[in-house]
Amino acid sequence: MEDELPEIRQRKIIHVDMDAFYASVEMLDNPELRGKAIAVGGGSSRGVVAAASYEARKFGVRSAMSGFLAKKKCPHLIFVKPRFERYTEISRKIREIFYEYTDKVEPLSLDEAYLDVTVNKKGNPSATLIAAEIRKRILDVTGLTASAGISINKFIAKVASDYNKPNGQKTVNPDEISDFLENLPIGKFYGVGKVTEEKMYQLGIFTGKDLKEKSEEYLIEHFGKSGGYYYHVVRGIHNSEVKSDRIAKSVGTEHTFFENLVSEVFMMEKLDDIANELDRRLGKKKIAGKTVTLKIKYSDFTVQTRSKTLPYFISDKSLILETVKELLYQEKPKDSVRLLGISLSNLNTDTDTGKPNKPIAVQLKFDF
């Protein structure tokens, strides 16, 4: 295991995370909202909060919280209707900045990404200085602030980016990793959710140091495969590379609604919009697939998927939507619906290169 460390230490990874992205965009476009407690989405009894400003977070308002509960926690909360086209537009500008420094960019969502700057376009040996420069460029171009974490792997960089939020950054040098992780509260470990955090508390694991004292066998016994992950990351070992050209196994899109849907008619209207977006993505990638999957997330957060595999490749919106309609009506939804998604898998891409086949469709210590 120790033999892996010299290779790992050669990497310089930055995790950039925008600060309260959706809420910050709304404040940017509407200066009257600046400094106020706002929530994007969630503006009705059945609504769900998509994002909250830091002013709202002080009162306990969080994403995925019901609008009713959010208003109860923060009576003066201002609800704002989401504008995903605007968020996507700004996200593209941010990614263009990333590519000025490296082609090794792995976006996680509209507002965060990993960058491998071990070798970079600026020839700058300091990942810390690059991160600071990127954050300044983002502020200059978009008017928004970002935070960053810098270290030798994706896991530590991700954890570090949350350390000095908002509008800050944290570098964890190779010789600081052990102390940093040992002193970290267990809930701050990326991959440890609320349920796992509670279970760890019951086992006497409150910090990285407590976690490090447990054997790999013990952690696997109590947490399954995740136990092996916890055993390694608390020792600073995480070999996953920044994947800028990940081979797609599926192409999909999904929307979370801020008022839960109860009628299949309304669901089909939303699925038509989702299919339009998927159609654009498929056209851009020039790929098709055989398996259509409908994803349904209910108001109680349970998820159901329904799939159908066709005997031929499709990429046309009308054919996808026809299959989705069949999947939707094959069984009545068990509850009101807060998210719908459509994905296409079993793609006509080569498994080695990720490039489309011909269509057969009917259509050491570093200076950080």
Automatic annotation (TrEMBL):
<dbReference type="Pfam" id="PF00817">
    <property type="entry name" value="IMS"/>
</dbReference>
<keyword id="KW-0235">DNA replication</keyword>
<keyword id="KW-0963">Cytoplasm</keyword>
<feature type="domain" description="UmuC">
    <location>
        <begin position="13"/>
        <end position="193"/>
    </location>
</feature>
<keyword id="KW-0479">Metal-binding</keyword>
<keyword id="KW-0234">DNA repair</keyword>
<keyword id="KW-0460">Magnesium</keyword>
<keyword id="KW-0238">DNA-binding</keyword>
<comment type="subunit">
    <text>Monomer.</text>
</comment>
<comment type="similarity">
    <text>Belongs to the DNA polymerase type-Y family.</text>
</comment>
<feature type="binding site">
    <location>
        <position position="17"/>
    </location>
    <ligand>
        <name>Mg(2+)</name>
    </ligand>
</feature>
<dbReference type="GO" id="GO:0003684">
    <property type="term" value="F:damaged DNA binding"/>
</dbReference>
<dbReference type="InterPro" id="IPR017961">
    <property type="entry name" value="DNA_pol_Y-fam_little_finger"/>
</dbReference>
<keyword id="KW-0808">Transferase</keyword>
<comment type="function">
    <text>Poorly processive, error-prone DNA polymerase involved in untargeted mutagenesis. Copies undamaged DNA at stalled replication forks, which arise in vivo from mismatched or misaligned primer ends. These misaligned primers can be extended by PolIV. Exhibits no 3'-5' exonuclease (proofreading) activity. May be involved in translesional synthesis, in conjunction with the beta clamp from PolIII.</text>
</comment>
<dbReference type="Pfam" id="PF11799">
    <property type="entry name" value="IMS_C"/>
</dbReference>
<dbReference type="GO" id="GO:0006261">
    <property type="term" value="P:DNA-templated DNA replication"/>
</dbReference>
<dbReference type="InterPro" id="IPR036775">
    <property type="entry name" value="DNA_pol_Y-fam_lit_finger_sf"/>
</dbReference>
<dbReference type="Pfam" id="PF11798">
    <property type="entry name" value="IMS_HHH"/>
</dbReference>
<feature type="site" description="Substrate discrimination">
    <location>
        <position position="22"/>
    </location>
</feature>
<dbReference type="InterPro" id="IPR022880">
    <property type="entry name" value="DNApol_IV"/>
</dbReference>
<dbReference type="InterPro" id="IPR043502">
    <property type="entry name" value="DNA/RNA_pol_sf"/>
</dbReference>
<dbReference type="InterPro" id="IPR050116">
    <property type="entry name" value="DNA_polymerase-Y"/>
</dbReference>
<keyword id="KW-0515">Mutator protein</keyword>
<dbReference type="GO" id="GO:0006281">
    <property type="term" value="P:DNA repair"/>
</dbReference>
<keyword id="KW-0227">DNA damage</keyword>
<dbReference type="InterPro" id="IPR043128">
    <property type="entry name" value="Rev_trsase/Diguanyl_cyclase"/>
</dbReference>
<keyword id="KW-0239">DNA-directed DNA polymerase</keyword>
<feature type="binding site">
    <location>
        <position position="111"/>
    </location>
    <ligand>
        <name>Mg(2+)</name>
    </ligand>
</feature>
<dbReference type="GO" id="GO:0005829">
    <property type="term" value="C:cytosol"/>
</dbReference>
<dbReference type="InterPro" id="IPR001126">
    <property type="entry name" value="UmuC"/>
</dbReference>
<keyword id="KW-0548">Nucleotidyltransferase</keyword>
<dbReference type="GO" id="GO:0000287">
    <property type="term" value="F:magnesium ion binding"/>
</dbReference>
<dbReference type="InterPro" id="IPR024728">
    <property type="entry name" value="PolY_HhH_motif"/>
</dbReference>
<dbReference type="GO" id="GO:0042276">
    <property type="term" value="P:error-prone translesion synthesis"/>
</dbReference>
<dbReference type="GO" id="GO:0009432">
    <property type="term" value="P:SOS response"/>
</dbReference>
<dbReference type="GO" id="GO:0003887">
    <property type="term" value="F:DNA-directed DNA polymerase activity"/>
</dbReference>
<feature type="active site">
    <location>
        <position position="112"/>
    </location>
</feature>
<protein>
    <recommendedName>
        <fullName>DNA polymerase IV</fullName>
        <ecNumber>2.7.7.7</ecNumber>
    </recommendedName>
</protein>
